[in-house]
Amino acid sequence: MRQAGTYSGILSGGISGKTGPHLLPLARIKKIMKKSGEDVKMISGESPIVFSKACELFIKELTQRSWMVTMQGKRRTLNKEDVASAVMATDLFDFLVNLVSESGNSGEAPPPLELDTFASS
Amino acid sequence: MHGDSSNSNTNTIINNNAANNGNAANSNTMPPPCMVREQDQYMPIANVIRIMRRILPTHAKISDDAKETIQECVSEYISFITGEANERCQREQRKTITAEDVLWAMGKLGFDDYVEPLTVFLNRYRENENERTSLRSEPMLKRGIDYGPSMMMAPYGAGFHVGHQQGIFDGVTAMGGYMRDGSSGGGGPSSQASLANHFDPFGQFK
C-alpha cells in the first residue's frame, strides 16, 4: 500500500493511484468542461487532474484577495461584496465581472483596491 | 370525536414549524423549488469551503453567499479555460483536449503563475502512474526533496500579510522538502517569519 507520505502536504490527500483521492471530484470537473461549449468533444484523462489542482490555486487566490477587502473594512466575515470587489480590482478576474455583478451587487462595496500590486511579477 | 380536525392539525404542525423558525408567515420557511441551485454544475461546496479555510485565518468567517459566489466562479473559471483550450484544439484539428492544451490556455489567459506549479504537479502524477504500471519502487524521500517549491504560494509573494500567519503558510510548512538549508519543514513562528522575508518560490528555476 503506497504511503501518502511526502506527497500529502502538497496534494492533501495524496495521489494514491488513478482513482485515489483528489481534492476536487474529477467527474464533476469533466462535466463542467463538457458544458463549456457545444463542440467540446473529447477530454484527456489528465485534463481534469490538472484542473483539480488549478481550481485549488484559483480558489485560494480569489479567497485571499477577497479577504484583503474584508480586512480593509475591518470585518471578520468574508461576504459576497468582498468577492465582487476583489474581482473588480484584479485584471486577471475580468472574466468574472458579469458573474459577480449579475446577482445584484449592493453598490456599497468599498472603493477598489490596487490588488495587482501584490501579484507576483 | 375530533377526527374532522385532523387535516387542520397537519396544517397547524407546518405553521408551528414556521413559527418556531421565527417566521410569521409559513410561506417564508421553504424556498420555492425553482430557486434550488442545480448543484452538479458546481464543485461541491464542502470542498470549496475546505480550500478557502486553508488560506484564511482561523478567526475568519465566510458568509453563505460568498461561498456560493466562489463556487460559481470556479465553474466559470473551468469553462473559461476549457473554451480557450478547445479553440486551440479545433484550430489544430485535434479532437481531444489534453493537459497541455489546458496549461497553454491558462498561460494565454493570464494564469501564467499557475503553469509552473501545475506542470510539476502533472509530471509527478505521470511519474506516479508510470511507477504503478511498471512496478518500480524508489525511495519516497528521494523524490520528496527535489519536488520543488510550493505550488500554492507562488502568486502571493512575500508582501502579503495576514493577521494570522499560520493559515497562509499552511501548504509550505507541510512541505518537508522545500527548506534547502536542511532544516525540517515548518517549525515555529520564527521559521515562518524568515520564510516571509525570503520567500522565492521559483528560485531554483532561475
UniProtKB/TrEMBL annotation, chain A:
Keyword DNA-binding in record: yes
Residue ranges occupied by any Transcription factor CBF/NF-Y/archaeal histone domain in the UniProt entry: 24-87
Pfam families in the record: CBFD_NFYB_HMF (PF00808)
SUPFAM superfamilies according to UniProt: Histone-fold
Main location: nucleus
One GO MF term attached to the UniProt entry: RNA polymerase II cis-regulatory region sequence-specific DNA binding
InterPro entries for this protein: CBFA_NFYB_domain (IPR003958), Histone-fold (IPR009072), Transcr_DNA_Rep_Reg (IPR050568)
Annotated Gene Ontology cellular component terms: nucleus
Sections of the chain in a coiled coil: none
Subcellular localization, as worded in the UniProt entry: Nucleus
Keywords (A to Z) from UniProt: DNA-binding, Nucleus, Transcription, Transcription regulation
Subunit structure: Heterotrimeric transcription factor composed of three components, NF-YA, NF-YB and NF-YC. NF-YB and NF-YC must interact and dimerize for NF-YA association and DNA binding.
Record function comment: Stimulates the transcription of various genes by recognizing and binding to a CCAAT motif in promoters.
UniProt similarity note: Belongs to the NFYC/HAP5 subunit family.
Protein name: Transcription factor CBF/NF-Y/archaeal histone domain-containing protein
Source species of the chain: Gossypium lobatum
Lineage of the organism: Eukaryota, Viridiplantae, Streptophyta, Embryophyta, Tracheophyta
Automatic annotation (TrEMBL), chain B:
SUPFAM superfamilies, alphabetized: Histone-fold
PROSITE patterns: NFYB_HAP3
Transcription factor CBF/NF-Y/archaeal histone domain mapped to chain residues: 43-106
Subcellular location: Nucleus
One cellular component term from this protein's GO annotations in UniProt: CCAAT-binding factor complex
A single GO molecular function term of this UniProt record: DNA-binding transcription activator activity, RNA polymerase II-specific
Keyword DNA-binding applies: yes
Residue stretches spanning the membrane: none
Keyword annotations from UniProtKB, A to Z: Abscisic acid signaling pathway, Activator, DNA-binding, Nucleus, Transcription, Transcription regulation
A Gene Ontology biological process term: abscisic acid-activated signaling pathway
Presence of keyword Transcription regulation: yes
Stretches the record annotates as Disordered: 1-31, 180-206
Ranges of Low complexity composition bias in the record: 1-29
Family to which this protein belongs: Belongs to the NFYB/HAP3 subunit family.
Name used for this protein in its record: Transcription factor CBF/NF-Y/archaeal histone domain-containing protein
The species this protein was found in: Gossypium schwendimanii
